[in-house]
Batch of 2 targets.
Target 1
Amino acid sequence: MFEPIIIHKEDKIISVDLAKKLSSYEIKASDKIPPPEVALKIGNAIIGTLGNILSIIGKAKGRKSFFIAMAVSVSVSKDNIFNLFKNELPNNQNNVLYFDTEQGKYHVQMALKRICKLTGNREPNNLHVYGLRALNPNERLELVEYAIYNTPNLGIVFIDGIKDLITSINDEEQATMIVSKLMKWSEEKNILITTVLHQNKGDSNARGHIGTELNNKAETVLSVTKSTDNEMVSIVKPEM
């Protein structure tokens, strides 16, 4: 015979709480769920929507940061950049966060000045730039999360580069953790999160387990590579 199942008072409370939580995530065919709002476009192509992740990958020194500068510039300005990039953020979500985890303060400021030049604005008041190179991964992660939840009217977050929010790009648990946070932040705050990650030296794949996770979870993956025909030209290509 089976032993009788005894449900303790604490277990009953837990099961009720879980039932409520599960119910809050149920999606029905009759629900009125609008499509995600467009955040960024290149030409007529949508590259990022609110509530999602955009992943930028490329080789070292492939001008990923210059591409990001253009993307940040159009994100803080309603003007098209080079008649190509288009900002379609809602007016009540015009604040932009830009985190640089790799460069020193001088070079982060150079990137900021490039953005100011592209926008024609000496100091955009809706752009907040942070250089996090001096911190350890846990400190960077803590500050990024704090800023995301405490910046009003937030529309887009740029993280260059995402690998510096964890200690190992090949640790499956850490990769799952950081990408899960990106999905949580983007959905709960209804923002576009743009990440930057290197490609492997030997192939065009994004580096490590974190690269695999981002490929699986990002709405769009764009690669930035130097042209083999002209060193002065970089090619932006949709990988996924």
Target 2
Amino acid sequence: MTSKRYLGNIITDTPTAPAGPYSSDVASGVWSLAEQRTYSAAGLWPTAGNVNPANLGLYLSSTNAGNPSTYGSQIRSFGFSSLGSSSDFGDTLSSYLKLTAAVASTTRAVFGGGFESSTFSNVLQYVTLLSAGNSTDFGDLTVGRYTNNGAHSNSTRGIFAGGNISGGRTNVIDYITIASTGNATDFGDLSNTMTTSGTGSSTRAIWAGGFSSSQETNEIQYVTIASTGNASNFGSLLGGSRQGVGACSSATRAVMAGGYSTGAGAFNNIEYVTIASTGNTTDFGDLSSSETGANCASTSNGTIGVYLYSTFENSITIASTGNGTAFSDSGVVHQTTATSGGHGGLQ
């Protein structure tokens, strides 16, 4: 009697132990039913159709691909393993929403604020990541604003910071508990009244660049998510003062890309920091072109970062350095915000 688990030398003698319960996980080899039941009971057996939320991203898009300034109401989903192939997920509560911000846990994504027709919106709305459909009312921010993507979250809290308000800009930082619904609570203040771009880890939220007073800034600032209080200085963007920066992260590294300033125009440089420390940025590489816009929709699955400006798309590998890689999502206009079930704050 042979001890091999197969006939014909087609599959190896040492199967790969199941990596997890999602359809993208691996369990190569030949397994007995008893072994399969054991792994299933432990939640480790891959199941067809069981999507890993860590590989799922969402972004808002314009309803008019030929006009990037058109307000966007469509929520689109994509997989980080198949960039350039997004699909319709649902719609936001308003068909006239842009320049909003987004946070997410592994279960739920929450969109906050935005510019709705001629109104600065304070509306918070959410979707369940693995259940396509229209958004549902969550509550309200403490102030109506479009936040230029100044948002970050861990698995518990979502934080929204800064933004344009009626008559100027705000320095207010709000937070929510993602698993519940209700109005946002005051967290503290940024260093200035400003627009800015957010990312971070499960411990820290950081904001990079933006527009403060009458000029762009290169300041990076941070807070500890589990506490409340005002932001502290982290360092500077050495590539230059600018707004509309794209920011995404792994659990350890935040990578900022692109943006523009009224004096220097559009930027294509990519820079990074180590989130747990403080200090100025280090050069990472360049986007495939210089990109400008009021906002970059950017997110990650903890490994791959994506930057979306209008119809421009680039991806990077966060743990390495190098230039952005272009991909194309069929001419869809990205309208201001993105998030995922596996970004740097969820690891």
